[in-house]
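Contributing new records

If you add data, match the layout below exactly. Sequence lines come first and carry their own label; structure lines follow with theirs. Keep one chain per record. Anything else will be rejected by the validation script.
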Amino acid sequence: MPHNNEYKQGIIYALSAYIMWGVAPLYFKIIEDVAPLDILLHRVVWSFLFILTILLVTVRFKNIRALLKQRKKIGLLVVTSLLIAVNWLIFIWSVTNGHMLDASLGYYINPIFNVLLGTVFLQEKLRKMQWVAVLLAVCAVLIELLVFGSIPWVSISLAVTFGFYGLLRKKIQADAMSGLFIETLILLPLALAYVVFIDSSSLQSFVAEGISFSLILIASGVVTTLPLLAFSAAAIRIPLSTLGFIQYIGPSLMLLLAVFMYNEPIGEHKLLSFGFIWLALIVYTADGYRFRNKQKATA
């Protein structure tokens, strides 16, 4: 178990990250007329400049220089940068195309997927009730598959990409700011090359639409960087399984926005899928609470 103060900090960072992610669709709905890939490109550019500004103000380049000398970690950061870029793109597309419920389901599935990743890669052994939670989550995916006749690719893709992102960031053990700066640095040439050589329309619209529109797009750097910084800070302070199950806050807020603010239809079968996921979360959380109490009693 991490040091008590560090553990508490990790919990606060995790709560902050998932609350910000939960309300992020409010921002993306404002710019839903912009193509998802264009939003992603702007997000990369402005995130890089936002983080660079923070680093210049705080003079924290020492950790980055040290990290750049570690080839293995840089290689893993290349993978995490691609994973998070794919995750962003799918999330932006789902929100701007009326699939916020699918995104919510994906982030509900992610904690269960984190549990499996912790078991396979971090040797975190699962208890019986934890396996029950995993099976319930599988049932939720099977309902989507059997009822709609297709794999819920949005939900599964979001869960898998973000799950592996969290796992690798935990293995890298880089501080949040340095890791995220290098990730955006890796993506920056790809974003600029796309704008310059493939499609310059996003740059043209940015200049032509006026200052208010430009400022909204610039804000994409702040809107998506702050929760990632908080998440990365949490990932190195608390267990992956704990981090995963705090995540229910994000998809819960997303679900409420989708149904009550943006009127996405939630039929009986979709409710059944969510029901299995909620039951899985309840089972896992209750088991974790019981296990911690047992440990305290033993100590």
